[in-house]
Amino acid sequence: MTEIAFLLADTLLALDYDQKTVKPLLATSWNTSPDGLTYRFTLRDDVRYCDGRPMKAEDVVFSLKRWIAPETRAPLANQAGSVKDIRAEGDTTVVYELNEPHSELLINLTQVSSSIIDRNEVEKLGTDFGVKHFNGTGPFCWVRWLPRNELVLKRNPHYKWGPDFYQNRGPAHVEQIVLKQVPDEGTRMAAMTAGQADLTQYVPRWSIARFEAARQFSVVRPATFFSLLYLGFKTDRPMVSDARVRKAMNMAINRDELARTVFFGRSDPAYSYTHPQSTDYNPELEPVLSRFNLAEANALLDQAGWSRGADGFRAKDGVRLAPVVVIPAPIMADVAQAIQGSLRQIGVDAKLELLDGAVFFQRAAQQDFEMYGLQQPYLTSGMMMSENFASTAIPVPNRMNWRNAEFDKLVWEARSATDPAKREAAYKQAQLIVHKDDVWMPLVHDQAYMIMGPRLAPMKAHGNQAVTLYKALDLRLK
Prior knowledge:
With 478 residues, the protein is α+β, with helices and mostly antiparallel strands. The chain has helices spanning 2-8, 57-68, 105-108, 119-125, 185-193, 208-213, 243-251, 255-261, 294-303, 329-344, 357-364, 381-388, 405-415, 420-436, and strands spanning 13-15, 22-24, 27-32, 38-43, 83-88, 93-98, 140-146, 150-155, 176-180, 199-200, 218-220, 227-233, 268-269, 307-308, 314-316, 319-320, 324-328, 351-355, 371-377, 440-445, 450-452. Helix 7 runs antiparallel to helix 9 (294-303) and helix 13 packs antiparallel against helix 14.
């Protein structure tokens, strides 16, 4: 859905290819008060929705207030900060007032959660908004959607306000995009090979070398891309409530081998929850990271009172060490099997539940399992900390139910800092706390690959929220 949102809608600000630099989009400029509490955004005066209606400041206010409204239940509403008020001053000025400073507000306003939508259509369609139609200011417009089949988009003829890091700022080069839903990876590969599809970033890792070797295809990857594949522990479940058990399981995973075999060398082994190149990363994490060590893993489980039985598996007080692991099958089926085998080496009998799509998230909303798998795109180490591990993020996205008062205090200090150095220092300390507690089992720092067929001219891949197309403004036929 993120790919679609970036094409249909715009945000106030855009994120450059480096995943760090914030650029103008719907807002041409902005300023911040010295106390960090008030942001004033000046909007473009030439933006039009797909139906031709001019976008005004009141549309921005409606969209942002809807994002943070409790009844909307937006999972990332905390990205907006503690909002005091958002108001329009005329048609081209939006004033955004906070109760306390929010050091990540600007970069968060580049994300799809803060997309500017059409108030008239929301009120007209109600719960069918985004299902039957979507009228946005993005470079493409809604034509039709066939659920579980395809979404057809056409070029927005009004569009001329794309970010300045694109060669083409609009309208889009291509007249139409047809987004096909093809769950089977073999079918996707066949469609690309046969010329039935022109572009995808969803191909199995083993196939990338084949596409690279075939001259008719272009294979590109974002220069900067942050996305983690991990398993999370339900830290309040008795079986994994002991940090020694979680550390032991972490130490049972040979990530170098995992990256080389399951991911065919197309991902990097992950020992920390964020990439060392990401903003706010703490290089002092190294001594606390859990490295592959079966002997130490077994010793930790012994210390925690989990003893091996005659069958090689461990038990304690008559309970078998058999954590239930909920896995999203399209993303992590192969890696889950490898992890299951690794855990058996230390006597852990992991029970996998491989689930598809929406079924996984329905299951993940429950509490009767010990571990779950996910892929988590992110922008900075600090944002990964505040959005996923703070106690205020329970139950989603803090599905681990992990609480730590010192961590929460540091995250609050970082988010409310007006001094970048103070923000960075607080986030670095927070990283030490959560890594020492082995709340997650990081697996690989993933990479995105965009495959383009012979009809398309090569173009740069983006990577914002793991989306390589982003606005697709430089997408064109040869």
